């Protein structure tokens, strides 16, 4: 087993000493309260951006709030756009919990970031969240001129369950089921809901996100067990859909129950000829990009994602 970074050890020591109950021992509502109380202690200072605006749109399942960030130095017209999909196991997370990451992407990428407050499970099971994210992408394309972006320069990004949703959107785009995208930036993505990878056993407990919690998240998200192997839940299970998908950046953390499936997805993208960059942080844990107060690699991971995105743009010219 690779050595834990000191920053990861510090975070784990802090959280293991808390009195928080495991999410799976309570209700989704209790999990959201606990998560909303805990995440601010790990995040760093929120960077100033050029502007932040909330807008409402209507998707196939009802109204959705979007938060739109224009980064410092981002073009007012024809600039790059990024749909950012927050993590949280499809059950927790919101616009505030990932505000820090969205600001980093906006400033580092000199772009406009659009973050949808997609509906959460179990009140809204699969595929409602996917549909909300696709609606946000469709909005960005339709109103690109209004928000100052080039509709041909829109990428999707996300962490954990948000990385899952971003990967699914990329596959839907490849099939013509969602608007075209220019890149996918996946941060420790969940790509296989069967949860049979060896990393689920190596890091089942003691490294932040546990196997029991991940099972609880998944079981709230899916409608039936048949959904688990559906590629719109488990993109790694897609049979022949990866070739021709948008260029990809994949970030993985060494001490993460999702590391094996993240690496497997990166490997498969590469083998099927998709332009891709894989960055691995061997000493880090799941969720480290949301731990900017203590983990220097948090911002560096966003910098790496943006650098890969820019390299994909440069190679396509």
Automatic annotation (TrEMBL):
GO terms for molecular function: hydrolase activity. It comes from the Bacteria. The keyword Transferase does not apply. The keyword Metal-binding does not apply. InterPro entries: AB_hydrolase_3, AB_hydrolase_fold, GDXG_lipolytic_enzyme, Lipase_GDXG_HIS_AS, Lipase_GDXG_put_SER_AS. Pfam families: Abhydrolase_3 (PF07859). Residues 82-289 form the Alpha/beta hydrolase fold-3 domain. The active site is at residue 160. Its EC number is 3.1.1.-. Gene3D superfamilies: alpha/beta hydrolase. Keywords: Hydrolase. PROSITE patterns: LIPASE_GDXG_HIS, LIPASE_GDXG_SER. Belongs to the 'GDXG' lipolytic enzyme family. PANTHER family: AB HYDROLASE SUPERFAMILY PROTEIN C4A8.06C, ALPHA_BETA HYDROLASE FOLD-3 DOMAIN-CONTAINING PROTEIN-RELATED. This is Acetyl esterase. The lineage of its organism: Bacteria, Pseudomonadati, Pseudomonadota, Alphaproteobacteria, Hyphomicrobiales.
